[in-house]
Amino acid sequence: MCAMPTEDATAEVSADETVAETGERDQFSGNLGFILAAVGSAIGLGNIWRFPFITAANGGAAFVLVYLGLLVVMGLPVLLAEIAVGRKAQLNAVGAYRDAGEQGETWKYAGLLGVVAALTVLSFYAVVAGWTIQYVLGSVTGAYFGDPGTYLQGILEGPSAILFQLIFMSLTAMVIAAGVSDGIENTVEVLMPALFLILGGLAIYAFTLDGAGAGYSFFLSPEWGIFTDYGSLPALLVDAAGQAAFTLSLGQAALITYGSYLGKDRDLSGSSLAVVVGNTSASFLAALAVFPMLASFGILGTAGGVETTFQALPAFFASLDLWGRVLGVAFFSVLAMGAFTSAISLLEIPVSYAVDEFGVERWKAAVLIAEAVALFGLLSALDQDFLTMADQIAVNLLIVTGIFLISVYAGWYFPDLKEEVNRGANYVKLGGFAQIMLRYVTPVLLLVLVLFSYYDFACNTVGLC
Ligand code: TRP
Prior knowledge:
The structure is a single chain. The chain is mostly helical. The protein is 80% helix and 0% strand. It is built from 19 helices and no strands. Mean pLDDT is 90; it is low at 1-23. Tryptophan binds at residues 41-42, 44-47, 246-247, 249, 252, 254, 342, 345-346.
């Protein structure tokens, strides 16, 4: 909290400079800056614990094939759609839906849904991100080395969860207050290369461990039987589609917002391919790092998710003493950096809406919205069950609906899709491909995903079945 006044002061100067210098809306200064920002949005907890475990649980390499297929036929077209809509309108999520295509006065509510989804996700994402910071510190001091389980229980909710949630939100607000090129772009240009280097280093280290082979085969050994097990095939497809959408940050207008800061001469087709490849590489590196470590420690079969990341791996690090501290700092820094660059893209969604539509100054919007989100996030920091519920509502209802809507909008109500996707393309032109997919393929796939998710939410979360 005490950091706030300084933040405001610096933010005001740089935001004013940017506007004064260019006299127009801020933009990414290059393709690379945009790609890193979009990859930064994409890489997060979804890559580091969700991907490895969802793969291991669903038949290894066979699941990977389905997932990669869905990335191409669904992930890439929707990614192209979001960026194209944003770039066409050069406006925030709501303004972009309203101005890019037809019947905008109705469609703008889809943009509003994206803003609401972003606020909801950010409120609990910041709490989880706070845990990762506490684990970086705990790795330095060895605080969790004695008893990882007790350490985890101590930080999940309550005062320290709140403190680190607030620190994390303050840092995120500082970056957003500084603007797109000075804030977001400068940050991702440092953090994304660092993240890949450390993750690559961890994967190489993992390769040297005894039992690494068992880790790889747990992850990848293909169970081709899943393709003929017709009973469980639908659930598998839904898992793979959900992961493909979540990992690319689709359905919440994050990429609409980032796309709106792209100049008309930028290569949108090539950048989107780079984003998909970069994000997928991070998921694989994470799996290649995590499974050999668990295998060498003899705890391969554990469930995955929160306990594995914040309890099983810490136990492994603790067993290695000093070297474990280094590994712990490396691993949890990757998580913290991934969460940070994702949170930056989440906060930019409502901030850009407030700036474009209501003429609020950027730094004010950043600080006020961050404060409101942090306040709402207190509920998640105080109560694990609330956090889980917010997560389920956001992912199973809001995001899934958002991704279906952008697909229908881009395919049927945005006549300039093809032209916008191909404009400025240097290597490949994906406009024709995106148009066919968004009209005839993705809406069908996504409708299945929507219905399945709603059903799952009603049954398993609300308990109606
Ligand atoms: N892609 C992020 C991850 O893999 C999570 C995420 C989903 C997200 N939707 C988002 C991040 C929107 C930023 C914006 O962890």
